[in-house]
Structures are given as C-alpha cells and as structure tokens.
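Narrative summary of target 7.
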Amino acid sequence: MNTTEIKEKFINKRILCSLFGHKIITTRNVTNHFKEFKCTVCQLELTNDEKGRKTFLTPELKEINETLIGFYNKRIHSI
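Modeled conformation, tokenized:
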C-alpha cells in the first residue's frame, strides 16, 4: 500500500465522520471523572477537560492523564 492509498483511506474516514458523526468509545478510565475516548472509524482520540467537555488528546494531556492515574492509584491503594 503506497502513501497515496493511505491518504485516500484516511480522508474517506474523516469525511464519513464529518457527515455521520464519530462513533466514540471509552478506551480508558483515568479517574472517576476523567476518561479517554477514541473514534472507531477515524481513530480520533479525545479526553475530558476540567469542565467535563471532550477535547482532543494532545501529548501534553496524555502525560497529564498518566500522572493523574499514578496519583489516583496511590490514593486508592493507601486507604
């Protein structure tokens, strides 16, 4: 598969999601309030922000979520 075919498939998936909406599933529970989501069609990754809205999962937010998991697990296991 060459790069042109890959680009065409990616663009077609993005068009499908823009027309019909994303098919979002929860991929990981960070805490009780924060989760990570992924579109099953175009592989778009999302997470919750501090106000509870879904936002794009950037490398910075991914690192923050990893830190939150560590703090959350320490707190749960120390009780």
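DSSP finds two helices and four strands in the chain.
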